[in-house]
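Try it yourself: sequence plus flavin-adenine dinucleotide, in.
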Amino acid sequence: VFDVLVVGGGPAGAAAAVYAARKGINTGVVAERFGGQVLDTLAIENFISVAETEGPKLAAALEQHVRAYDVDIMNLQRVKQLKTGDLDDLIEIELENGATLKSRTVILSTGARWREMNVPGEEQYKTKGVAFCPHCDGPLFKGKRVAVIGGGNSGVEAAIDLAGIVKEVTLLEFDGKLRADAVLQKKLASLPNVRVITSAQTTEVLGDGQKVTGLVYKDRIGDSLNTIELEGIFVQIGLLPNTDWLKTSGVELSPRGEIVVDARGETSVPGVFAAGDATTTPYKQIIIATGEGAKAALSAFDYLIRSN
Ligand code: FAD
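Structure, out:
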């Protein structure tokens, strides 16, 4: 039986495991892929105190830090269910392989994934011009031309943000109009280097083999195909939390599927805490996920010393 069982081995889970283990309590981490989204990242320049690193390098450092403590790491294991309410007050975590783990507290940190356009060229040019995070990759496109795909709040926020850095932003929205809040749309309309194209369906990412050179979109009204020359494409059509497996668990999820947490990282279920991109905490960033993971572990420890 674990005192703290962490589900997910990204930045949030790694931080939670280190903080829990440092209390001398029985700590485990179960992860489908230790490292999480960081493994898919090339340059990271905003993890404070590390001016520049690469995703796989940071992922290895996270794992090394966790392994410096007595933590039971169960990698390449997918969790499929969380159960509570048994007589012994323990929380049960059921794995895809049929095994069940029991713990006095659980920290959920299963992260999220960006929704993709699923068009030719997108996969090939990821990290070579196709980007998903303006806070992360915006500065790489200083003085260049970029497109933002998606006219919801995150797309319009991204376009406003990028307009201050890049030369020119083209925002493409599938629908006939933008869906972002009016105040954001007003701000967007005031910017001289942003143009908005509605009823536009991106159909292809173009490149020269090394990097992005443009995109093709279909005008959904006139049915014509049009090409835009540019250096970067920010896809902002949704961030999906990895929480489907929690739907029947009793842990409260927001309408977007994020785990609802309070300021201490507690969920609606006693003894169950959560941290990182899978939660309602705003701004999905590595440094935020690690901070939240540390906080959730301290909250779990606090909970443990108050229960039998
Ligand atoms: P994740 O990193 O998503 O980790 C989730 C963990 O849970 C993984 O181990 C996963 O395998 C596991 N998991 C999921 N489901 C299950 C399950 N059912 N059972 C068991 N395990 C499960 N942020 C920055 O701050 N700077 C950047 O430069 C930056 N660049 C980025 C570039 C890209 C391409 C991407 C995709 C993201 C980038 N981010 C960046 C965002 C950053 O990676 C995330 O905010 C951060 O990784 C979130 O950490 P997390 O621990 O909450 O989740």
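One thing you can check immediately is this: The chain has a mean pLDDT of 97.
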